[in-house]
Design a protein that fits this description.
The complex is a heterodimer of chains A (about 325) and B (about 290). With about 325 residues, chain A is an alpha+beta fold. Chain A has helices at about 10-15, 35-45, 80-85, 110-115, 135-140, 145, 155-160, 160-165, 170-180, 190-195, 210-215, 220-235, 240-255, 260-275, 280-285, 300-315, and strands at about 1-10, 20-30, 65-70, 70-75, 90-95, 100, 105. In chain A, helix 9 runs antiparallel to helix 10, helix 9 (about 170-180) crosses helix 12 (about 220-235) and helix 13 (about 240-255) runs antiparallel to helix 14. Chain A starts with a strand and ends with a helix. Chain B starts with a strand and ends with a helix. Classes of the chains: A alpha+beta (about 325), B alpha/beta (about 290).
């Protein structure tokens, strides 16, 4: 099948800034052909100036992360015809959230810096045993998903939180952090959790699930973030707005069975920040939207719900 | 067509117009909605941060109630949809966990058998009602109105649990806009995040997301937006003023919820659609298009 592959290109090294343009290449796509196969064919036969990273061609090295029809994917793991069918076109762009070096090659330095920040190495608990460290199958399985990361940057490239806050630690570093937090041989759990709970850390993930959706290796970074949050709360690292937000939600459900928005906002933000939202509150009230700030009806069966929550919470 | 109706907390309070307009169009479409008066909040994805078992128990309590009612669940909220769908899948994949959760529920006299299906209103409209029937009910085609379909996150992801549209290239909401006589606008941010979950954690980041999404739609020719999610609606409409201030722009982008757009095209009045509850009024836009 003849298709046009559109590629978003730019060459900041030549012009000093990124003036992106779309260039189309006509290719004959065959069943089973990957986006990377197509790029290699284009570079060989049509245009040697096209720049992109690649190495293993089998989703192991993590070099060819890019935006394919708007979503972050590995070019070597994505079939071009299947992708074409979805939109009747194929547009390839450099990985999101990174600055461009040339064409589809982005500067991944921020990715490495963030991963480095979480100390991606084992800080052994006590002296390592001389005969090797035997851990059980269950203990190893706890960090199975997170250990599969190939650091391709797909998750950071699609991350909404990183789009809104470039300093956000990012899903890849969070998954890597859990790989050590969940490792029974590591002795720096508290320190790791304390550090990653700070500003730009785990509590700034907006739960958009892009990383869980697009990770090519089944790492599920957002699930790792949820686990880090639960571990941090378990360790008593609770002095931040993220934890207040969670506490306010649980408290609201225990009190009335559902979300008492006014009180929940107040408790999450704290007095000073909540006062800052008063003008919006007044506007909402004028439009008849404001939930009652004090009286909020309970759901039917609230006693039963409270008992149930208690049953689960006491199990811990 | 009968469903256990779980509008979600937001649509019973701050976005109450979504609930009200849904009840109106449900009647016109012959969808019977039986309210789940005993149902609890799903936790909006926050329970997991504290206690995974609490999250699953809270969702399973809702499922057990729906099973008792003999109906599948219909929700208006993307996030309720995602939380419950994810919990359902987790319980399907892990029979041991299902047993533990049922032990918890037994104390409240409830049991979850694993039979419940969770639907979003948008899915029921596309799959069960069908766009042909929708087209027949349109008496006020949204002619000349360029509408950005804003899907949001949780109606698409994670697609192993939330199964309907293609998460890479969804089209249900765009097709609905066309069926109502409007013109869907193609823009990059339609499946990306409005930042809602950071509203109370890092508000400035959330406001930036709101501004980016609306600007993106506007620059692609959108005159208004429609979203199936009450949480996206809170951000895009109520927080638009914050985004204006932060980015130094005047977005002035009316945001419809799903039921309002349908009801309006079905000929229901402006007051029935409760547009006055929005902070950004669509009325002048609708006037310039001769729709009111």
């Amino acid at each position: 099948m003849k298709i046009k592959v559109k590629i978003k290109r730019c060459d900041p090294m030549a012009s000093g800034r990124c003036e992106a343009y779309i260039q189309g290449y006509d290719i004959k796509a065959k069943k089973g052909m990957t986006v990377l196969d197509a790029l290699i064919w284009i570079k060989d036969r049509l245009d040697g100036t096209l720049a992109f990273r690649r190495s293993c061609r089998s989703a192991i090295c993590g070099s060819c992360a890019m935006m394919i029809n708007g979503n972050p994917k590995l070019a070597c793991k994505t079939q071009i015809l299947k992708e074409f069918e979805k939109r009747q076109e194929i547009l390839i762009a450099p990985l999101g959230n990174f600055s461009i070096i040339k064409d589809l090659v982005v500067d991944l330095t921020p990715l490495w810096k963030k991963i480095n920040k979480i100390e991606p190495w084992l800080n052994p608990v006590g002296e390592p045993p001389e005969t090797g460290w035997i851990i059980s199958r269950e203990e190893a399985q706890r960090i199975d998903n997170e250990s599969a990361c190939i650091m391709c940057g797909v998750c950071n490239g699609g991350c909404n939180s990183q789009e809104g806050d470039p300093d956000f630690i990012g899903p890849s570093a969070c998954a890597k952090s859990y790989r050590f937090v969940g490792d029974v041989r590591d002795g720096s759990k508290f320190k790791r959790l304390e550090k990653i709970s700070r500003e730009h850390g785990i509590w700034n993930c907006m739960r958009c699930l892009m990383c869980n959706q697009y990770c090519p290796k089944g790492v599920y970074p957002m699930t790792a973030i949820e686990k880090l949050r639960a571990e941090a709360i378990g360790e008593g690292i609770v002095d931040n707005f993220g934890v207040r937000h969670v506490d306010a939600m649980v408290e609201s459900v225990r009190r009335v069975g559902r979300l008492d928005e006014a009180m929940y906002t107040f408790k999450s933000l704290g007095f000073l920040r909540a006062v800052g939202m008063l003008p919006l509150g007044i506007r909402l009230e004028l439009h008849g939207k404001m939930p009652h700030p004090v009286i909020f009806p309970e759901i039917d069966g609230i006693e039963e719900l409270r008992e149930l929550m208690k049953t689960v919470e006491e199990k811990e | 067509m009968k469903f256990a109706y779980y509008p979600g907390c937001a649509s019973l309070a701050i976005t109450k117009e979504y609930n009200a307009t849904t009840l109106l169009i449900a009647e016109m479409l012959g969808i019977e909605l039986v309210e789940m008066v005993r149902a609890n909040c799903c936790g909006a994805a926050l329970f997991n941060d504290q206690n995974r078992e609490l999250n699953l128990t809270m969702s399973a309590r809702i499922f057990a109630q729906a099973e008792e009612m003999g109906c599948d669940i219909l929700t208006l909220c993307n996030t309720c949809l995602m939380v419950m769908s994810r919990a359902k899948k987790e319980l399907e994949d892990n029979p041991e966990m299902l047993k533990a959760i049922n032990d918890n529920l037994a104390k409240a006299g409830l049991k979850y058998n694993g039979d419940v299906k969770i639907n979003h209103l948008l899915w029921v409209i596309i799959r069960d009602i069908g766009l042909d029937r929708i087209k027949k009910l349109v008496t006020r085609p949204l002619k000349g109105l360029n509408i950005g379909a804003y899907y949001g996150c949780h109606i698409l992801r994670p697609s192993d649990a939330v199964v309907f549209d293609n998460p890479d290239a969804p089209n249900s909401l765009d097709n609905l806009i066309s069926a109502l006589g409007g013109t869907p606008v193609e823009y990059a941010g339609k499946t990306r995040c409005c930042g809602f979950q950071l509203d109370l954690v890092s508000p400035e980041i959330a406001h930036r997301m709101v501004g980016k999404r609306i600007l993106d739609c506007k620059e692609s020719g959108g005159e208004c937006m429609v979203t199936p999610c009450p949480l996206c609606h809170i951000n895009l409409d109520s927080y638009q003023g914050y985004a204006n201030k932060l980015l130094g722009v005047k977005l002035d982008m009316p945001i419809f919820n799903l039921s309002q757009l349908i009801g309006f095209a079905f000929g229901l009045s402006v007051s029935d659609m409760e547009f006055s509850k929005h902070l950004v009024s669509p009325e002048s836009l609708l006037k310039t298009k001769d729709l009111v």
